[in-house]
Specification:
Elements: E1 2-6, H1 10-23, E2 28-33, H2 36-45, E3 51-55, E4 57-58, E5 61-62, H3 64-69, E6 76-80, H4 86-89, E7 94-99, H5 104-120, H6 130-140, E8 147-152, E9 155-160, E10 164-170, E11 173-178, E12 183-186, H7 190-196, E13 202-206, E14 209-212, E15 216-221, E16 227-231, E17 239-241, H8 246-253
Parallel strand pairs: 1-2, 1-3, 3-6, 6-7
Antiparallel strand pairs: 4-5, 8-9, 10-11, 10-14, 11-12, 13-14, 15-16, 16-17
GO molecular function, one term: DNA binding
Protein name: LytTR family transcriptional regulator
Keywords: Phosphoprotein, Plasmid
Length: about 260
């Protein structure tokens, strides 16, 4: 089986590759691509792989742009922390939709499904029905965490979720910031945190930042359909919401 991974996080690529080879040592990861442009260029110049594993958020945009720019005949397994793109994901030749953090058992089930469909339909692999998709997402959704354990010097503290103002990445460390401005390192990735926090209260602004709804102290229109945020407590970095995230952010604020 020839597989191509489209994912912009190096650790995620490494983890996926190891899980794929654990599933089937004969499996060949033919390429690992990190952006929309790189994926389009590769797909235009190479034979279609047997399977694509695609993260929805890439370094230069959403993966759906790939399917607008090049014909993709390969079936796809999507991987992402965001379930709001699920219906759009299944408008292509999708086998499954996995929410991060991906567990080996879940990936193995998706690969089993792909092989079973491949044996029955040559080509293409049919799309999963939307009602099946809803069941999949609900089955993968975790219970929201009410508190997080953090290190405070030599002590360990329990921080309630409603005490969190935002969580951001700084020099490869994820820092939880409370409403009173205290900062604590956390061991979870932002992808994992997005699954643990109540999506009615928390929003992932970009790859480096997740905010609580009450921390958005100021919201200003910005260039090219983007928004600029002022946070409380103040954060010493510019907070910009991209044009593709702006409608989702406004919808979230208006819930």
């Amino acid at each position: 089986m020839r597989v191509v991974i489209i994912e912009d996080e190096a650790l995620a690529v490494e983890k996926l590759t190891k899980m794929l080879l654990s599933y089937d040592k004969q499996l060949q990861v033919e390429a690992t691509l990190t952006s929309v442009d790189e994926a389009v260029a590769w797909l235009q110049t190479h034979p279609a792989p047997d399977l694509l594993l695609v993260d929805i958020h890439l370094e230069d945009g959403l993966c759906f742009e790939i399917f607008k720019k090049v014909t993709v005949d390969s079936p796809v397994i999507f991987t992402t922390a965001y379930d709001q793109y699920a219906i759009k994901a299944f408008q292509v030749h999708s086998v499954d939709y996995l929410l991060k953090p991906i567990q080996y058992e879940k990936l193995a089930q998706s690969l089993d499904k792909f092989k079973a469909l491949q044996a029955r339909f040559h080509p293409p692999v049919p799309q999963l029905r939307l009602d099946d998709l809803a069941k999949l997402i609900n089955a993968d959704r975790n219970t929201y965490k009410s508190r997080f354990l953090v290190k405070a010097g030599a002590r360990i503290r329990a921080i309630k979720s409603d005490e969190i103002a935002y969580i951001f990445t700084e020099q490869k460390t994820n820092l939880l910031v409370t409403r009173d401005g205290l900062r604590y390192p956390v061991d979870y990735s932002l992808d994992e945190l997005c699954l643990m926090l109540d999506t009615n209260l928390f929003f992932r602004v970009n790859r480096q930042l997740v905010i609580h709804i009450d921390s958005a102290a100021e919201i200003h229109p910005y260039f090219k359909g983007r928004l600029k945020l002022g946070l409380y407590p103040p954060l010493d970095m510019e907070v910009i919401i991209s044009s593709d995230r702006t409608p989702l952010f406004k919808e979230w604020l208006g819930k």
